[in-house]
Amino acid sequence: MPVLHQPRDLDEACTLLAELDDPMVYGGGTAIQILLKQGLLFAENLVDLSFVPGLTAIEATATGIRVGAMTPLRRMETDAQVAGVVPLAAATYGHVANPRVRNTASVGGNIAHGDYRLDPPTALLALDAQVELRSAHGQRRVPVRDFFVDFQLTAVEHGELITAIEIPAQPAGSASSYVKLSSLGENDWPSASAAALLVTEAGRRTLRLGIGALAPIPQFVSVDVSGHDLETTVEAAKAAADPLIDPIPDVRGSVTYKRRLGLVAVEDAVRRAWKDQDDD
Amino acid sequence: MRMLNLTVNGRVHDVPVDDNELLLDVLRTKVGCTSVREGCGVGACGACTVLVDGRSVSSCLALAVRHDGAEIVTADGLPGDDAVVEAFVECGAMQCGYCIPGFVLMTHELLAENPQPDAEQIAAHLEGNICRCGTYPEICAAVTSAAARGARL
User: Fold this and answer.
1) Is the domain of B99 the same as that of B132?
2) ipTM of this predicted complex?
3) Residue B32: exposed, middle, or buried by beta-carbon count in 10 A (0-12, 13-18, 19+)?
């Protein structure tokens, strides 16, 4: 079993990550515990962030909100500020696993896990979030659109940990929706997922799409849909999403199945976002 | 080994634990709360549910040492006249009963947040709990009945 370290502040956590052999950050711990039980996790040292203060705040910023890395996923779903500033994020986080897992799993650990099927990255991509990273050498920010590098691989470097995610406010008059399609059961990983955000700014209308579970990493595409009606927006969205879909076949569906389901998820997300806009 | 301080169902326990011990095992073997049960072991079935500082947690995925000083409620610590338990009994919301402690605690969490949930909200909150006997209709009726009784922890 790996050795558990429980630093009491961020500096101590960064020092541990820099100096220990083969360390891994222990956030909420839901994924790590499952992987440990399955014998799939090989870290020698776990650096537990649960006693590091200052990592669970949700704060308003000049441009949106900043969410501490150890904030439980469930707070993203229940917090009034999140629902008001970034409703797409609130809706998407509410789809992760089940309420108990959401009570424990953390916002930072979720994206650090890097799984291509995660729900939150789809919304974070559409919302153009930034990931705040810290190490013994200092702090840096990585756009979430550059964060997912390859299958199970993120931009987090050795010795770094995620301290926060900054999410720009959803523009006034925007509309959004998240669709998750699971083939094995209501609570399972999705076979396909899509977050759609319709933004109207300076006379132009843009559709931003985050796509999950359909390629080795979550995908993002932005489409100019100025002057489009619902049907031509749906067609434009599917045409833009199609080349990004590169499914991994597994027990949840073949390549053909997931490709088809992916376009259904995109279409459903666009139609629901459109309806959301009409309802406002 | 280190000493862990847990308040379980209102009683303070100081228990020696290893760093890698799960809250599930500590509660069952060192505190004696056998209503906390292992089902799937991966947080998906809800049989191991406990309330930690009022929030539902899958104890099968929770490292015990992260919960030093926590206040924990398990189903066997609920009072004999607990309104949620009474609603489950009166609605016949169980067959074998293995999963029911988890459902009861999830119901308490739901009603604390939302005292009058509709059917959709009940299903959404209990989505991560599995009853192999399939008594879901009775369980949903029991939650509605518990809400009507104004159940409170």
Assistant:
1) yes
2) 0.95
3) exposed
What is the value of pTM for the model shown? 0.96
Nearest by CB: B43 against A50, A101, A186: A101
**B72 and B109 belong to one structural domain:** no
**A140 phi and psi, to 5 degrees?**
-150, 165
Would the CB atoms of A33 and B44 count as touching at under 8 Å?
no
Mean pLDDT per 10-residue segment, chain B (153 residues): 96 97 98 97 96 98 96 96 96 96 98 97 97 97 96 79
Could you tell me the domains of chain A?
56-168 (3.30.465.10), 175-279 (3.30.390.50)
Last residue of a domain, which of B25, B47, B77? Answer: B77
List, in order, residues 6 or more apart from A174 with CB less than 8 Å away.
A197, A198, A199, A200, A277
| Residue A30 to residue B66, Cβ atoms within 8 A | no
The strand pairing partners of A48, in sequence order, are: A26
Whether residue B71 lies inside any domain: the answer is yes
